[in-house]
Structure formats: structure tokens, C-alpha cells
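Pipeline run #58 for the internal structure catalog. This entry was flagged by the ingest filter as a single-chain record with no existing model, so it goes straight to prediction. Upstream metadata was stripped on purpose; only the residue string is passed forward. Reviewer on rotation: M.T. Logging verbosity set to normal.
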Amino acid sequence: MCDLHDQHEHDHETAAVGHPALSRRRIMQLLGAAGVTAAATAVDADPAMAAAAEPAAADGPYQAPEGLAEDSPAKRSALAWIGSHADRVTGLNEEIWELAELSLREWKSSLAQADFLRKAGFQVEFGTAGFPTAFTATFRHGSGGPAIGFSGEYDALPGLSQKKGVGRHDPLEYVHDPYAPTYGPGHGCGHSALGTAAAAAAAAVAQAAQRHDLPVTVKFFGSTAEETLVGKTYAVSKGVYDGLDAFLDWHPSTANATGWGSTTAMTAVTFTFLGVAGHGGTPLGNKSALDAAVMMATMSEFLREENLAPSGRLHWVINNGGDIPNVTPEIAEISYYVREGSPARVQVLLDKVIAVSEAAAKAAQTKVSHRITAACWNQLPSRSFAELLHDNMRQIGPPEFTGEAQELAKELQKSLGLPEKGLHAEIGELKPPNPVFMGGGSTDVADISWNVPTVSMGAALAPIGTKMHTWSTAACAAAAPGRAAVLAAAKYLAATAVDLVTQPERLRAVKEEFAERTEGVSWKTALPEGYEPPMYEPPAWFLKETGQKWPPAGITWPPRRWCHRSGSRPWDLS
């Protein structure tokens, strides 16, 4: 699924809760001296990694600057708007949390977020980049001002249903399948809060601009399918984010922190094996596609020792392995996430995974093909943007967690066997990223960051020591911890955006750093030529309410399908 924490969020979370960041000695232990040298050489030879790397400090220990964020009537108005509309903001979070709609099918969640922005004076257009549940909301005041973008998401994750505010595993929805029981979807990554806080920040900036006559264009991008890293990467390739001067992003976390580390580039790929079906009781002559998928999974595990660098990640799941043991599976699919420090490094590892698939198909006497379902770059950081955001976070202060919020956090930690430290109630120290990139999560915001100066931050929604993509995060997202986090995150984003409008020198510094980092690097989408994103056909009522037609331009519908052929090739696309 999408992304756990961005690597820089993880680094600052670690520092915030009292554990030191990786020391040079520890890095040497992990990689060995030769490994460090090789990593440095790789950065020099890889423009994308070099642009995202932090130069070695030459003037002593880093000290985060203060005084970048300035008090202003416009900022006070923006923060006051969030405070006076707190019930509406937290109510929107709870509404989307209860809907818990999966990627590409966020019918009611997207409408709820769009309606919130319409009421704040935004013009809303659905169908961004052809995605039915993606929308762009725009507010303009005056002319000649900067264009500021905000990132909104609202998709849930499968299997993470959990009752709100309950400190033990207690799914809200249970799927009673006698052969494959499971749980319903849930906001185990906190996207109900993510999109809500960003929408509140965008609305607050718009209201402040109107009240204080500040020329600005505020754009909110309601993005679908972040959990599968599909929505933004494809939208960027279609020019959706062109014309922005700055882009602000946040993600629920276990700490209140920002930074300027990078993330891993990633390619998501699904391998389809086609065999020959038959009765399980007479297996001779059958050709099991599932055998091929299992062999591929097993063989790919052997890549880890000699073919996977410390910055690489490789994970897989068999998402179609047959229906009943008594029928030899004729079709099987296995999906991989391949991650590394840059698109070029991902491709090296992906080529090895593809070779494994071909070996497995040959061994099982099946056929194999693959299709890339998503692909993104590593994130381009912005030190100057992070410093401005951190100064606003420091001045505003941490989320205002109630006793109820801390009690829930400790109950969850006890249930999970973790130290009962509660929620992180401080602003994490701003620190430079680790000198050697050690890998981590991925984000489709990364592709935006190569096209417009981008900053990301985390606000504590989940207890210290827990992780995203869990039922414990779902328990917090719309309960007391989530209510505090969503308001704090909205304030951090709004205050920083107002500074970009009222202090042109801050925006200029951010844009100058962006120009320096991207010099000599040409961004090109990592998606393959002719890529069509996965989609679900919307309900008729949704198309009518959003004024869309189906299918969108450039989308083949019904989708192409795998099938056997009677000609020279035993299988092909139909």
C-alpha cells in the first residue's frame, strides 16, 4: 500500500522521542567502509539521488533558524478561522472516517471534501486527470499573486476496520465469509484527517486573503488512490500541477515534525501467470499458474542478500491464487512493490525481479506477462521550505491533546505490547537528514516535488511507537487524538502558506533552492509509455452529481483482459 512514513518523518520522529539519529559510526557498521564509498559514488553518478542529498556541513552543527515565520494580521485571521470552524473541520474528518472508502472508489468522501471547499468559496471541478473521484478546487483573489497548492487525500485501506476510540482490536465491520473471513476497510493511514486538515488550511488561507486583500491563487487537489500511489503520479504526467509556485503536504504520524530528507522511488508491478486448468484429483498434465507465482515469490526472496542494497525494499503479495483447491489455478497474479533511492536504481532491481518471473514461468511450464500499475520518483526535498514550516510549528505549538486522547494512546500501546508513552506532545527538533540514505517509504507527492517546490510534515495522530497502516491508527484517526491532530496540522499548513504570500523573500528563497537542486535533472514520469491507470466505473448517481461522463478520455473500457488464444501465442490481451 501507499506510504507508511516518508523517510524524513521517520528520522524526526525518532529524534523527537529520544532516540538518536544514525551516527556515522552506526552507518559504517551497517554498510561497511566500502559500502559508504559505494553509496557516495552512486549519488555522484545518479542525478536524482544527488539532487535530493544533503551536502556535508562545513560550519559546525546545524541550528534551525528562528524568526522566519512572522506574525501578521492575515496569519491571525487564518488561524482564527480554523479555530472558529473547529467543529466543521473535525466533523468532516469523522464523516470521511465513517465512510472508509477504498482507493479509486471514494465516491462520497470526495463529495464531502469538495462540498466543504465550495462553502468556503472555491470553484470545484471533478475528474482531474480523468479520475472520477479526483477534483481540483480553486480560489482566486486579485491578480499577480503566487499560486499555492495543497494536497488532499481520502482513501481508506482494506482490512483495517476498527471502532473509533477503542484501545484494543475491535473491528467495526467483519466480513463473514466462511472460507476467507476478514475485516472491512478502515482509515489505518489517517487519510480522513489528511484531506480534511489540508482542506481547512486551504479554506483558511482563502478567507484571510479575502479579508486582507492579498492577491493569491489557492488550489486544493483532491487526490484519489494515494494508497496505491496511482493518483498524483499520473496527474503530474498530465500537467495537473503546472503553474504552482509552492505545494504544501502533510501526513498523519506519531510525531510533530518536518525535515528535508528524501523518500524511495517505487515501481508497483503485477505479474500474471497463465497455465492450464484441470481437476485436482487428476493433476497430471495440468499446469498450475499458482505454482509459478509461489516459485517466483520464493526465488525473489533470494535477491535480498546479494542484490538488495540497504536503501532497497522488495515486498509482494499473491492477489489472485485461485478459488478452490480442487481446480488447478489457470491464472494467478502476484504484485510487487520495488523501491530504491531513485528511478534508475529501481529499474536495476526491477529487471532482476522480471528475470525471476520468467524463470518461474519456465519452471512451471506457464506463460507470464507483467504490467506496471504505479511508479513514482524519490522526493526532492526543500531545506528552506522545511525551515519556514518548522518555525511556524514551533510558534504555534504541538497539538492540544486532551486527557482522553492520551489515555486512548496508552491503552493502544498496552494492547500492542509497547511502552505506554502516550502521544507525542512536543514539536520535534529540526535536523539534517542522515548522510547515507537508508531507504524507507514512498509517496506520490514525490513526483510533484520535482515540478514545484514542495514541503511535507507530520502531525501526531497515532501513539508513539505505533505505525501507519494499522487498526490502531484507525482507532485514533477520528477520535480524540485525530481531532487534535487535524486542527494542529491545518494551522501549520495555513500559517506557512500565509508567510509565502506576505513575505515574498521566503517564497523567493524556496524557489531559488528548487532551481539549484533541479539543475541538470530532467524529470520524466516513471510510468511506462501508453500507461492507463486502473479505474472503477462510478455509480450513475455519482456521475450525474459531479457532471462527468464515462469512460474518461484516453481510458479503454471495458479494460483489456488476459485470455488464451488459439493462434500461435497461447495467451494475449483481448
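catalog note: The two ends are 28 Å apart (CA to CA).
catalog note: DSSP finds 18 helices and 15 strands in the chain.
status: ready for reviewer M.T.
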